[in-house]
C-alpha cells in the first residue's frame, strides 16, 4: 500500500561556480536556502536563488541595490 503522507523535501541549495586564474572550474559558494512560506506551511513555498533590479538584466554589480529578497515574492518593475 502506498503512503499518502507527504515527505518534506530538503531545503534547496545554491551552488555558485567560478573559475581560477588558470581557467579551471571551481565551486565558489555553497549555501542552503531557507524557503519562504507566505501562505502557511501547508501551501507552496518559495526560494529566491537570484534576482536583479532591472529588466533586461545587467550583470554589473549595483551598490544601490541592497534589497533582501529571502522573505519576499520577486516582481518585475513596472
Low-confidence stretches: none
Helical content band: under 10%
Number of strands: 2
- Characterize the quaternary organization of these chains: single chain
Please outline the major beta sheet.
Answer: 2 strands, antiparallel
Rounded to the nearest angstrom, the radius of gyration is 17 Å
Shape: flat
What's the SSE pattern?
EE
Average predicted local confidence, pLDDT: 77
Look at the helices and sheets and give the structural class.
Answer: mainly beta
State the end-to-end CA separation. Answer: 51 Å
Strand order of the largest sheet: 1-2
Tally the helices: what do you get?
0
Question: How large is the share of residues in beta strands?
Answer: 15-25%
Explain how this protein is built.
Helices cover 0% and strands 19% of the residues. It is mainly β. The chain has a domain at 11-34 and 49-61.
Topology at a glance:
Layout: E1 13-19, E2 25-32
Antiparallel strand pairs: 1-2
Keywords:
single chain; about 80 residues; mainly beta; two-stranded antiparallel sheet
Summarize this entry quickly.
The protein is mainly beta and 78 residues long. Helices cover 0% and strands 19% of the residues.
Amino acid at each position: 500500500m502506498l503512503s499518502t503522507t507527504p515527505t518534506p523535501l530538503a531545503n534547496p541549495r545554491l551552488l555558485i561556480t567560478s573559475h581560477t586564474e588558470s581557467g579551471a572550474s571551481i565551486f565558489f559558494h555553497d549555501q542552503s536556502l531557507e524557503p519562504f512560506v507566505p501562505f502557511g506551511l501547508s501551501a507552496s513555498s518559495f526560494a529566491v536563488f537570484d534576482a536583479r533590479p532591472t529588466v533586461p538584466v545587467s550583470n554589473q554589480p549595483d551598490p544601490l541595490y541592497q534589497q533582501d529578497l529571502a522573505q519576499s515574492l520577486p516582481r518585475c518593475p513596472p
